[in-house]
Hints:
- The protein is an alpha+beta fold.
- It is 42% helix and 26% strand.
- The chain has two domains: 2-141, Dynein light chain 2a, cytoplasmic (Beta-Lactamase); 159-287, 2-Layer Sandwich (Beta-Lactamase).
- It has helices spanning 2-13, 40-61, 99-120, 133-141, 164-180, 206-226, 263-283, 293-300; strands spanning 18-25, 30-35, 66-71, 75-81, 84-93, 159-161, 184-191, 195-198, 201-204, 230-236, 240-247, 250-257, 285-287.
- Strands 2-1-5-4-3-10-11-12-7-8-9 form an eleven-stranded antiparallel beta sheet, with helices on both faces. Strands 6-13 form a two-stranded antiparallel sheet.
Amino acid sequence: MSDELTETLQNIKTITGVENVVLIQKDGLPVASAGVWFSKEEVFAVASSTCAIFGVARLIHGSFRYLLMESDTSKVFLASLPNDPDYFLTVTTAPRVNLAALFIEMNDSLSRLSFLLRQHVDGRLPPLRSYSSEETQKVLQGFAVAEGRDTTYGMTRSIISLDRSQALTLRALLRQVHDSIPNIESVFLSLSGGVRVSLEGFTNDRLAAMSFALHDASERVVRTLRNSSLQTVLCETESSRHFIYSVPNGVFSLWVAKDNQKLGLMRLLLKHYIEETRRVLAAASAAKPAIPDELKELLLSRSSESGLIVSRKDP
């Protein structure tokens, strides 16, 4: 079966703009791959990173056809296999790949992969390979783009504060989006921490938090693989499309019914509203979260005079 899987992945690799293809179990184990630069360690990094995104998308949408992460240097494409929830495909492409052609040409290959897995695997999943922390760091270092420079993987979030004028402007923009694009199911902003700004006002809900988490996980993958900043996430199900755009200290999230919607036209309409939203949020005041000095002293204290024992793990 290995040769047949590799041949099918190679067929996808021949599509114009495609750089790498990896077939992955839902728990993060790479099964087969084809590409221009992936080593075994790099395949592991791609599989483990995109597995997290696959899991979050499944929590939000139940099942989905594909998820697309776009940056200025590349696109990362996750595709579910037809009627096979245990595996998915990760494809990395050039930044200007023709997505319509990619989707059309991949359909037969996805069905072929699903058929091969049903015929030969029959639901039996191989055990996961384990990596020590040292091995994991070595894998991540393989993605460094500059020699002789330490690479760190970390991101910080700020707490954003909106005045009344800014809040009303954002709601007006959301109303314009809602009125200009037909069949919208939901449109809102999810600020850092999952706080939702919508036409119904400011609320905290699971949908906002999960949308923020999906974008956050996608951003970490793009930064790890390409050292680039994520611009857009698009998740398509059988009946709807979920757009997530990066905005200062948050994300813009849009659910819209897929029927009779032209993807290119919709993205063109959204471009103006996203730019205006970014302008408003960029002008809002933001502060880094801080721990009060008294609490910081208590947390970092090694003393147990008061009967409280606090342990600290040095970085």
